[in-house]
TrEMBL record:
Residues 160-261 form the Pyrroline-5-carboxylate reductase dimerisation domain. The keyword Oxidoreductase applies. Signal peptide: none annotated. It comes from Janibacter indicus. It is found in: Cytoplasm. Its main location: cytoplasm. One of its GO terms (molecular function) is pyrroline-5-carboxylate reductase activity. Pfam families: F420_oxidored, P5CR_dimer. This is Pyrroline-5-carboxylate reductase.
Amino acid sequence: MTTAIYGVGAMGGAILDGLTAHGDGEVLAVARTPERATELRERYADRPAVEVVDASTAAARADVHLVVVKPYAVADLLAQVRDSLRPGSVVVSLALGVSLADLAAALPDGVAAVRGMPNTPARVGQGMTVLSPAADVTDEQLQLVRDVLVPTGATLVLPEAQQGAATAMSGSAPAYFYLVVEAMVDAGVAQGLSRSDALALAGQAARGAGAMLVETGAEAALLRAQVTSPGGSTAAALARLEAHGVRHALADAVAACAERAG
Ligand SMILES: NC(=O)C1=CN([C@@H]2O[C@H](COP(=O)(O)OP(=O)(O)OC[C@H]3O[C@@H](n4cnc5c(N)ncnc54)[C@H](OP(=O)(O)O)[C@@H]3O)[C@@H](O)[C@H]2O)C=CC1
Ligand SMILES: O=C(O)[C@@H]1CCC=N1
């Protein structure tokens, strides 16, 4: 099984790290300049599964192609590789807003197309990739993509029409939590904690809360109620958050993200 990653930036690098830390297949990292190739070879020198190649080489060799360049660069990249792609291989575009129709127009017959939206916790095996396969993608091809991504975290298959909402809830969502933690750390410092202690406490609270949500499957409202003792400190904090309109702010943010991403 050979996977190619086109674009080893913030997102592609996170996937590459996730795949090679926990996976066992061959991974081709595509660099577009010799300088970038040298940099990637040095960075991944301790990971024998990683081979740095040019785009045409990757296109000819890989079974699954993960396209993680900026959205505006996808069309040029696919035009560059389309004649080298093997029939039966699968191209997974992870670029914001690039539709299955865009991919169908750019790919040759016999090459399958999947639209996806990952997130950066893929780096530590805790990511989520939302996948929308084209109508002609076989169950085996979709399963192959899901299997490839296992070392980066979970996958969920949704209709393409829900990619915008999924981006708002998943692809972009880590940034919302980082913003909250960033603000909490500043507030903790204002309360006299060291920055490193504040970050350790807020980060572990975020990790614990996330694990509770995922592992218990309970509604967030129930878990929140379990923390909120009558007349206690949590109730005091939550009342302030509600007064500052945190729900409205999140609803507005999610709607703006979904609109931009769809
Ligand atoms: N960041 C995130 O959290 C998420 C990003 N995405 C999607 O991932 C994609 C990449 O975003 P992000 O990682 O943030 O952006 P970056 O700018 O960090 O990474 C893009 C990378 O693509 C490389 N690149 C550009 N053109 C080519 C090419 N022709 N061949 C090989 N490599 C190329 C660039 O290399 P060079 O440095 O040489 O220019 C750069 O390293 C976007 O489409 C985005 O929508 C999706 C979900 C989450
Ligand atoms: O902000 C962006 O456009 C990309 C897509 C989702 C997360 N980052």
